[in-house]
Amino acid sequence: MKRIVLSIFAAGLAMTGAAHAADTVDQAIDICRGKVNDTATKPDDSNPNTMFCRGFVATIRDHDSAKAHTWFLKSAEAGYAVGQYFVATQFEHGDGVDQDIQQALAWHLKAAEQGLAESQHQYAHIYFFGRSAQGVAPDPDKALPWFRKAADQGYAESQAYLGLAYELGTGVPQSYTQAQIWYRLAAAQDNGFALASLGDMYQTGRGGEKDEVKGFEMIEKAARMNMPTAQLAVAHDYRDGIGVKKDAVTAFVWFALYSYNKDGERPADMDALEKTLTPAQVAEATTRAQSLWTEVNK
User: Fold this and answer.
1) CATH (domain of 179)
2) Which end of the chain is more exposed for a tag (fewer CB within 10 A), N or C?
3) C-alpha to C-alpha distance for 41 and 51, rounded to whole angstroms
4) What is the phi/psi pair of residue 136, to 5°?
5) Last-in-domain residue among 225, 256, 279
6) CA torsion, points 115, 110, 45, 65, in degrees to nearest 10?
């Protein structure tokens, strides 16, 4: 099973509003690293941050998700918001513990009520899209207030999903103007989803101004952040000359990147395009795609 908690540590996701010793996950991890390296001081296992750090060590050093859960749960029960977030994440994905979406929601809500933006966002995300396989129906009325709380803290993912809600009219009156406001805020933080969504709005003129070149530039930026749907859109833009000069070889490059992200699954448009290229052009595009794949995965 993929170690969800380990991947979160590796990403160093920043979150605000944690209780006790740290206000962000980055701060919590820095504190933990200091404790791990401090062999002279006896750890105080009654301290919620120390409990969390025990979970950190179990995750990073021991690769033991079940052991990590024990310590994260202790810190969560003591009111440590970052610990509550990690417990919720483990329950959400079944990492080191049986999957339980209701437990995930309960712990995310506890951290969200302390102001932790990541839990505010994830609690909202679960309700916005629902988890039908786990018995949670979509409920925008529960989701949107928490998206807004996180967005008001500057949390880019929530700003992007507020943009989506306004674009689709999900839980709010449809408003392309409001959608663009929230997409722009998230795009300013290089959120790939917001960049691609705002770029698509510019290309189609939804919300007013139509600017295919500006739209293409935004979508390409998201594609270079290794966002598959943006890569597919860039491929189509190069193929059709939307916002950029037609270039079949470069279109094939982007189709190939999309395919790499889909475990080799090739869209029908890629197969159709290949039939128009010479073997030398396909070889060139494949070499370029492999190089670009390395670049976008750095």
Assistant:
1) 1.25.40.10
2) C
3) 15
4) -110, 115
5) 225
6) -110
Number of domains in the chain: 3
Q: Based on the domain organization, do 79 and 143 belong to the same domain?
A: yes
Domain hosting residue 42, numbered range: 1-150
Mean pLDDT check: name the lowest of 5-9, 52-56, 160-164, 238-242.
5-9
Tell me the pLDDT band of 24, cut-offs 50, 70 and 90: low
Instruction: Quickly state the pLDDT bin for 261 (edges 50, 70, 90).
Output: very high
Backbone angles phi, psi at 120, to 5 degrees: -60, -45
- In terms of domains, do 77 and 10 share one? yes
Question: Distance between CA 150 and CA 148 in Å, rounded?
Answer: 5
- Band (pLDDT 50/70/90 cuts) for residue 63 is confident
Structure-token pair, residue 188: 């300013």
**Burial level of 224, CB count in 10 A (0-12/13-18/19+)?**
middle
Helices (H), the chain: 4-11, 25-37, 48-60, 65-77, 81-93, 101-113, 117-129, 140-152, 156-168, 176-187, 192-204, 212-223, 228-240, 248-261, 268-274, 279-296
For 125-150, the pLDDT digits (tens) are 999 999 999 999 999 999 999 999 99
| Lookup result for tokens 């989506």 | 164
DSSP letter string over 152-210?
Answer: HTT-HHHHHHHHHHHHHTSSS---HHHHHHHHHHHHTTT-HHHHHHHHHHHHHTTTS--
Q: What is the reported pLDDT for 47? A: 81
Where among 225, 257, 276 does a domain terminate? 225
State whether 57 and 39 are in the same domain.
yes
Read off the amino acid at residue 43.
P
Q: Percentage of residues in the chain with pLDDT exceeding 70? A: 86
Is the same domain home to 180 and 237? no
User: Residue 275: CB partners within 8 Å, gap ≥ 6?
Assistant: none
Task: pLDDT band for 6, please (50, 70, 90 cuts).
Answer: very low
